[in-house]
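Technical annex B. To support the medicinal chemistry partners, we prepared a structural model of the target in complex with calcium ion, based solely on the information shown next.
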Amino acid sequence: MLAFLPAISLAAYWGGGEVLLVFCALLTPLVYALTGGFGQMSDGGRTDLEDTASVEEVAEDFLAMALHNGQTTACLQLRISGLDAISDAFGPTRADEARDVIETRLTSALRQSDHVFRSGDCQFTLLIAPGFRLKLDSLLDLAKRLRLAAEEPISINGVSQYVTVNIGIASSLNFGRNVTADIWLDSAIQALTDAVESGTPTTRVWSDKLSRRHKARRDLQDDIAGALDAGQIQAFFQPQVSVRTGDVTGMEALARWDHPTRGILPAAAFLPAAMETGQMVRLGQSVVIRALNALQTWDGAGLSVPTISVNLSEAELLDPDLPDHIAVALDRSGVLAHRLVLEISETVLRGSNDDISQRNLIALSEIGCAIDLDNFGTGTCGVSQLQSVPFQRLKIDRQLVMGSDLSEDRQRILSAIIGLADRLEMQTVGCGVETLGEHGVLRDLGCGHAQGFLFAEPGSAGDIGAWLAERQGREEPANGVRLRRVK
Ligand code: C2E
Ligand code: CA
């Protein structure tokens, strides 16, 4: 219509003079507006969707419009963190009001033709109307604007409350013509999941690579229960040694997946999938049984391993049956309770401030098990929390030990932690020791135990048995494999 406008005007002038020219100039835009031409052309112009349309209906409509006009549309999924804390501190009504405030702010940061939906207690789905200028840069700018709007402090009872926002974006540009609304919305959720898992409030944009990562994780999630049934989840072991004498003082059990096609997978590759599918309690039970069996085997071979440590997940700590399971496993193995050490990481301790985990920890120490605080020094564990549980040892995180021989700052921190532990009558384990220099620092500062690749990398019960035999002057088992040892 626009292309023909000059020709139409000229013809009108030739045929009917100025009157027809004026008439034509007024009528052409009118016809254009009535046929919906302006709505389709402008970036983010109004659409004729009802306010009551569902997220799927709007998504389908926007996608169809974008494909038809060669435009781009985008879905943004926003997750708000901090509303739970508001609910805890001021009650659910105030948290609802905060949610309303955020929704209003998001709506005002967008155009009228865009849509904002609540898709959960702390999640919003935003659909951006098709436009010609919605390239990646403008989407990232938009995400920044939305974050600033949502993260503005909210005043509740005169006190400023803060929330943070994670954002996942899926642009229709990244999909072919056959994309459906479901796939598009789901892709923005994948991007949001990626943002949330990064650990800091951030924005992620969906891409093929991100999607492949998610597929690999879903495959792992599907397989992990079967792997536990088939006995493919095994325990590897890493020795802990006395810093002063080099004698073995304990052994830590670490989960490994003996995958039929991918080989031995480290804990980090499958623990998230086990957590997401609720398999951590089963996994923990299987590792405890394997750890106690290995200890018995080493005892039988005359190898000295005073204690065996296992890691406890948050799910296990919140399981009311945990002390019973541990007591039964100890009973069946015949291993004395004081030889089993349970490691709780600082982050798990922080999230477990409730009755069941406290009750479990007290019950476990009454059975006679020792409890170590893992990954100490990098989290936010308060000094008072150190006394809430009868910890036997503080395991100083690898981050603090790494390069400590080259950094006076780290040495000062290590010295302060070891001094604190001394005062609280706890022992210390320096973790992730890789060099003789780091070992020397721990020795000079009076750290009791050390664990790390300098002594041995985690190995199977058989391999570690061979390492022990060689170190302790016993006969080496037939399948022995040499591991690294202290020079
Ligand atoms: P963690 O408890 O801090 O375990 C120590 C991790 O550091 C192990 O990784 C170990 O292989 C690694 N490591 C030890 N020495 C060194 C070193 O000198 N240098 C370096 N770079 N790394 C070293 P892994 O086995 O991959 O385990 C990672 C984490 O997964 C563990 O961290 C623990 O939090 C968790 N995990 C492992 N097994 C289990 C399990 O059976 N149950 C639970 N709940 N968590 C487990
Ligand atoms: Ca550990």
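Notes passed to the chemistry partners:
Residues 2-40 form one domain.
The CA atoms of residues 25 and 483 lie 88 Å apart.
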